[in-house]
Design a protein that fits this description.
about 475 residues, alpha/beta, Isopropylmalate Dehydrogenase, Alpha-Beta Plaits, 3 domains, 13 helices, about 25% strand, binds nicotinamide-adenine-dinucleotide
Length: about 475
């Protein structure tokens, strides 16, 4: 154990947050954790004061000085103008990987899968959580899904390094690259590249839908799962429930210079103030934090005492089952763990000492050479609600405006091709993607694109956005229309 105290920030959070944080801090302190704690204010109270980020300037300052945070759950405010604090913290601290272990504690916690012991490594900064959303027409909204090469590589490398360090044998990637060939395709391609550097580890890819189904029905077959942000968010709640209770799930958000530890569950407003919530998710997040800080003895003591408490049948209400001797509240559960500090479990496996700082797996990425990029067309998105939305009418109008160097190649509506060929059954909205390509094939120029937009503008066509079509080293960087 390090002799000096580690400087950390604590945010108690909302709803059940203060109750489970109080229980957690008492256990950590009793186990001899050497922590210099500074409390920061985040969440509902701060939002109420009109701070739209949910964290005020003073707290930011403290967090920047000591970027290790143990955080209670936050109630996400409804309504426009406010930002999700969790997303802000993850991005501001560069916490790119969210590590979520899901283990079963049978027979003491009910589960159909006693052998389950998996870890989900969720990408934490990108994907639909970039939160770039627009309403573009009367009928259509969009959210941009951003998947980047360095973002994918960083989290995938982290997952492989974590697996190797912890003696795991297999890493599974889950995406929906059969549909999202460009974005999820990049994540999967990067996974395949990194996997080649870890020949001793088995690697596999599953489509996220069947992958999630398998996590629900055969979780014991998985060891480490790496996945983009949204899938990982959903999957880790499924996995925590399959393991026994969402109240048991802990997570570490990891970056190069900071880390944030929290339970995976939310602020459970239905339980707030009753003192009955399970503090285990936050407590086990605290154990991850102690291991990260190198305080292995304290981490081991808490982990083993916690396991022993489960074995002794002292359970919070969410864990009530055949092995429960007494249902206890959050504070009494903490007392029970404290009483058992120094004891080891008798039937459950004893905790492992851990392998130290989570940051040990953070990779340094090499800048890749930039590929040759060529502009080969443009998708112009148009708000159009005329002529009974007959695609042929829009097709004729835009063909006439395409000019001499560009031609209208296709129109899609919600991704489905409706012109030049389409099916009469396709229901069309007021949002049309119109693809223009060079007449001669090959490349075009920004100037030609701007001239096209000028013609559309002069003709009163309401274009709402453009997406350029590029090739990279000759390979198209865009998808075809469905049905094209
Ligand atoms: P929730 O996780 O708070 O609750 C879901 C269910 O699980 C509820 O029935 C609740 O009683 C139960 N539960 C949760 N934690 C428990 C515990 N420790 N012990 C026993 N039972 C527990 O999810 P929700 O109700 O969808 O969300 C409530 C609020 O929390 C929302 O504002 C949401 O945005 C927010 N949230 C915050 C975080 C976070 O801060 N990391 C994560 C998820 C949700």
């Amino acid at each position: 154990m390090s002799e000096s105290q580690d400087k950390i920030c604590v945010a108690r959070g909302d709803g059940i947050g203060p109750e489970i944080m109080e229980a957690t801090l008492r256990v950590l302190e009793s186990a001899g954790a050497k922590l210099d704690v500074r409390e920061i204010q985040v969440g509902a109270e701060v939002y109420r004061r009109g701070v739209t980020s949910g964290i005020d300037e003073d707290s930011w300052g403290v967090l920047m000085e000591r970027p290790v945070l143990l955080k209670g759950p936050i109630t996400t405010p409804q309504g426009g103008g406010v930002k999700s604090l969790n997303v802000t913290l993850r991005k501001a601290l560069g916490l790119f990987a969210n590590v979520r272990p899901c283990q079963s504690w049978a027979p003491f916690v009910r589960t159909a899968h006693p052998e389950m012991d998996l870890v989900i490594v969720r990408e934490n900064e990108e994907d639909l959580y970039a939160g770039i959303e627009h309403r573009q027409t009367a009928e259509v909204t969009q959210c941009l899904k951003l998947i980047t090469q360095p973002g994918s590589e960083r989290v995938i490398r982290y997952a492989f390094a974590w697996a190797r360090l912890h003696g795991r044998k297999r890493v599974t990637c889950m995406t929906k690259d059969n549909i999202m060939k460009v974005t999820d395709g990049l994540f999967r391609k990067t996974f395949n590249e990194v996997a080649r550097e870890y020949p001793e580890l088995e690697s596999e890819h599953l489509i996220i839908d069947i992958g999630s189904a398998r996590v629900a029905t055969q979780p014991e077959r998985f060891e480490v799962i790496v996945t983009p942000n949204l899938y990982g968010d959903i999957l880790s709640d499924i996995a925590a429930e399959v393991a026994g209770s969402v109240g048991l799930g802990a997570s570490a958000n990891v970056g190069a210079s900071g880390a944030m530890f929290e339970a995976i569950h939310g602020s459970a407003p239905d339980l707030a103030g009753q003192g009955v919530a399970n503090p285990s998710g936050l407590l086990l997040a605290g154990v991850m934090m102690l291991r990260h800080l190198g305080q292995r003895e304290a981490a081991l003591a808490v982990d083993n005492a916690w396991r022993r408490t489960l074995e002794d049948g002292l359970h919070t209400a969410d864990l009530r089952g055949a092995e429960t001797r007494r249902v206890v509240g959050s504070a009494a559960f903490a007392d029970a763990v404290i009483e058992r500090l120094g004891e080891a479990p008798r039937r459950l496996k004893a905790a492992s000492p851990g392998v130290g700082a989570l940051a040990a797996c953070v990779p340094t990425l090499e800048r890749r050479p930039r590929p040759e990029k060529a502009l080969v067309g443009v998708d112009v998105f148009v708000d159009w609600d005329e002529a009974d939305r007959a695609p042929s009418a829009l097709g004729e109008r835009l063909t006439a405006l395409a000019g001499s160097s560009l031609r209208l190649e296709m129109i899609t509506n919600r991704g489905v091709q409706v012109w030049p060929r389409g099916l009469p059954q396709t229901v069309c909205t007021d949002h049309w993607r119109c693809r223009f390509r060079p007449v001669e094939g090959g490349a075009t120029t920004h100037r030609e694109v701007v001239a096209l937009l000028e013609r559309l503008s002069a003709a009163g066509v309401d274009f709402i956005k453009t997406e350029h079509l590029y090739t990279f080293d000759g390979a198209p960087g865009f998808s075809l229309g469905q049905g094209q």
